[in-house]
Amino acid sequence: MIDCRSNVMFEEAAKGKRRFNPFLVMLFFILVFDVGQALSAVVTAPFMVVWMDTEILPKLREIDVTALSFEELMKLAASMPPYVFIANLFSTVFTTIAALIFATKIEGRSFASVGFRKHKIASNYGLGYLIGAGVLVLTCLVTWAIRACDMSLGNINALIILYFLGYIVQGMSEEVLCRGFLMISLRNSIKSDHGIWISVFVSALVFALLHSLNPGMTALSFFNLFLSGLFFSALVLRFDNLWIACAAHAAWNFFQGNIIGVEVSGMEQGVSLFKCTITGSDLITGGSFGFEGGLVMTVILSVVTVLLFVVPGRKKAEV
User: Fold this and answer.
1) Residue 78 domain-assigned?
2) Phi and psi dihedrals of 151, rounded to 5?
């Protein structure tokens, strides 16, 4: 098992100037999230206005809006063009900034306590990217092997570079928010010996809840998102840094949406190297939600996450 008691992140977090009780930590999490979302909305507003004026409103004029179900409205929202989607990816930087400001200035924690340690940044990020990409490639290969999907060439263009960079920003934002801030702050606030596992469970559950309104969401999709939260937490604990989880998260989304060519948590992608066409059961493949909603992902993610938690952790390294 991973010996979380010797993690540098937790040791550094314990040196922080202020600790809040778990209830306040959750309230502050909501505040940080809302601030990040508000700032993001300001930046993406011009792109959203153009999209609404040129595409959404003309469609709505042709149909009876009152007859649309919530799921249909969400699918309409998920069909945003690349220029809007990419703007949204880059705008998540404000969530990262808000979470870092709170952790370092309000709680008085160091960047090392958030998981941004100086030791082997490049190698940790590279390893994390390989792990995240590997999970998605393996999921795709298994799905294809059981004849539940077909692969063909996609419609790649220069925008794929912006998607690649955008997912680096977006992956980091969710990891800083859910793991570097929430998980570590909760652990720091809970005196119980089980505080580590409580904070891991809560951060994974919150991570799933943040995606609960995505189009195509099912009970299995929600469970898999919870599992992915445990997976990213396991990476943070196993390697005692946040870089590896940020990279794995970025690779997870980029490979799923822009290399393999399926939806990312129900969100359509405009550019992909390949196009994965689902031919099997939605229960197995995830259907319109992407691989994150299928049983293939459930099995693979469960095995990888258990291995990450069970394999003994490395000895402490430099901060």
Assistant:
1) yes
2) -115, 140
